[in-house]
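Lecture 7 notes. Example A: sequence first, then its structure tokens.
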Amino acid sequence: MTAIRSLLFHICFYTVTTLYLLVFLPFLPFFSRRNMWDIIVRSWLAALKWLLRVICGIHTQISGQENIPEGPLLIGAKHQSAWETMALLGVFRDPAFILKQELLKTPVFGWYLTKLGMIPVDRSAGPSALRDMTRRARETAQEGRQIVIFPEGTRRAPGAPPDYKTGISFLYTSLKVPCLPLALNSGLFWPRRAFILHPGTIRVEILPAIPAGLSRTEFSTRLENEIETASNLLLHEGLTELGARAPQMPNQP
């Protein structure tokens, strides 16, 4: 039954997404970014949330929203699933995700990402990619927006040893804005590289902001410790909920 529900969800989700992309495409040049958020993104996210709940039995619980400060902000989020690449759009007021450049070059879908002001990074460009990403992020922060980055760069299985990259610490010291750590357990219910989705509650915890001004080493240590500690607690909550359906966890050091 779980496989059938997962198949139905994927069919409905990609159908709805395709319809959104095509229906609003002729009007794309006339939309402001604010219009995009209010008219397209938020209703599409509501559809995603409804499909997950009704078809797959996946609910969402987000805590700590009172920790989100006003003004420009760097957000370092745990990355386990495709879920957070979409759902976090609705958590923050005007977020700009740092994502691989290839996505912006995708016909139609990439046009929407460009219109929303996402920040591309060319992973093949070496050190110049980091400089270009930082320049774009600085311009975005000056607009008062929130910049979302996944510090590990790619999705990691729940329970896998952390693999934090240097990009977020470089941004933190360059932008001189607070950083908001974000923990989650989405990979238990919408696993990476997997077709089957599992019913349960995806939990997200927004932790207190790390103030600007720390050294790069101090910031990196604090960010990883806070995200991993909170994510491990959410992981155990999710495993308890899944019970016998829980996946086998990777070996941790």
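Example B, a different protein, same format:
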Amino acid sequence: MFTEGFYRQIPCPFHFFRNPWNSIIVTIADLKTRLSTATSDDPQAAVAIVDALLAASADAGASDLHLLPSADGLAISWRIDGVLQPLGSVPNELASNVVTRLKVLARLLTYRTNVPQEGRIAARPGSVEVRISTFPTLFGEKIVARNLPRGEPPLARNADLGLPAEVSQSLRDALLQTSGALIVAGPAGSGKTTTAYSCLREIMDGGRSRRSIASLEDPVEVVVEGVAQSQVAEAAGFDLLTGLRSLVRQDPEVIFIGEIRDAEAAAVALQAALTGQLLITTFHATDAAVALSRLGEMGIPPYAIRSGVRSVVAQRLVRRLCDCARPAELDAAAALNLGRLELSAAGVKRPVGCEACRHTGYSGRLAVAEVLDLQSPRVAEAVLARSDAATLREAATASGMIGLYPRAAALMSEGVTSAEEVIRVFGIAI
């Protein structure tokens, strides 16, 4: 089931969904037309629009649905395979009704339009749970509706994630330890949480004696059986730092922190990792070396980083070329860069587009990952010397780490992804 990489977002193969207006099958093009022609004459128009959008985004495998207000109405787009794609718009006279309908479903305060709010829409039969986030803008409230994963996939084990062999092995080794921190790093939308949840499942099914596992998340995205999961509630005074300080007194053997965001939380988390708990957490950073460097910038002493962090896994998600891809020619400079990496340009392909991939040229995603092992003497020396990210990266590469960029280049060389996708994800050309 997961041979193509667990992070794949499977699109709706037939490109249609059941329309609540009349319960017949309609195309995405028809949805766009209906959105632009809907009027306020129908009192149920907003309800029908919201139901259709939520159903369509779930069926299409979209991770997020964006509703952006403007002077002309409500622009709608969705994110599929990590890319935001325009879907249509709602006329101005219906925009506020659509926003209000979503807020009602998420049990938010409809009269509060000047402050951000967050809520959830419970999963209905055949649908998924949706997390709603509102944000005030010049022309009204912007809404992002995130489709939360359905039951079993987020609980897959590490072997299902399609990670490189040495990264998977490093994860397995780290999860067998009784102390130290495993940090999963990457930008937003890079699959960090999916990897972290798979680590929890790996521990639960690892065959060792049962371990006490507790989590502190903001929010809890997936319920993991056997894990004492807690959700931050800052309005009630239960913030990440308060929860973490209390959590270490709950006799946990494994602690999962949804995300380390500030210096105080990082200090408490590393202290737990140094005093007998295995810590799993996510961290926003472009790569593994930057993650270590940022911990130092937060004021964490080098000895604490060196002793407390076992390894840092950094990852990105790139789109996989559809079968309709065709051979591509690279310019001389790009081919030379591949040659320097000892890679061939012969297998490079370009996206074309067909009905199966919605004419995007891509179908699903896969992970590009690197692992920085702090057990390496050279890396340890660089950490203790308070080296910058570039020096840390150089030390890790000299110790055998294969970085994100060379891995992405290899996938491009093999025709798995394209040069355009590497540029989109990494911001640099081959």
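Note on Example B: Residues 15 and 27 are 6 Å apart (CA to CA). The longest helix spans residues 45-59.
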